[in-house]
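Worked example 2:
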Amino acid sequence: MAEVLRAGVIGAGVFGGYHAAKFAQLPGVTLAGVYDHHPHHAEALVARSGGRVFESVAQLIAEVDVVSIATPASAHAPAVLAALAAGRPVYVEKPVATDPDDAAEIVELAGRQGIVAACGFLERAGLEAAGLFGAPEAPSLMEAVRRGPPSARNLDVSVVLDLMIHDLDLALALSAAEPAMIEADGRAVIHASLDVVDAEAEFDDGFVARFHASRVAEARERTLRIVYPSGEVRIDFLTGVVENQTPFPLQTGFAAGREARDGLGASLAAFIGAVRGDRPAPLATVRDGARALDLALAVEQAMAQQGLV
């Protein structure tokens, strides 16, 4: 493996800019360049972060060692599949795809090729640092709130695939059980697709996860409450306040640490570590991404059955 990995970023929007900046700073990685179907966006990004402008997705994939995908969600699957087909480790922003068949094809190809393929669930960085994934008890309840003001980003998907999917992934990561029953309610407010959704998933071991997401709120709100038989953990991600009422020896200062403050940097570093063999896997794989997509689509289907979608 090359001593310095050449990274290429597909997508030069807001998140593509974040990816490019992180790769430019990561030890043992160089930003080779960027592709965007709007060349002037790519030109502006490389002027800030370095590298070159690639003329096509195929050219970028051919000339880099690792690929990062930060396009709109509806364009994720073709780029991921192209990278995997060329044997390139790939990091894709959530959701891994918008169609479950595409997600299944991505998981199958990554597995068959034996290629590191990561999905960008950034909240995992903080929870891993806190030690919550190693808790000695299974949770009985999780309640996640993720609300924010209107934005021009990610309007090609609903708030479920835009925001709530982060918390759907956390529920799946925290529980060894599988979702068995979904209830949901939501509405479009200012966009064509759902802007506000409340959902509840009951897992086959009795674990209940409740999700509240809005992308038309007046102010940001990001909290997580996890209840265990011996107590509960409450996290306010905006203030950094962590309340641990369990006997678990959690790292309650994690919210002030690098992993929580820079989830993308920690997630991309874990991806590069997995590519180099320094860790067994990235923080979240494309298989995790496919599971979260399935649950997100089940939430949307629950609303469709009520005529809400």
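The CA atoms of residues 174 and 298 lie 19 Å apart. The first strand starts at residue 5 and ends at 10.
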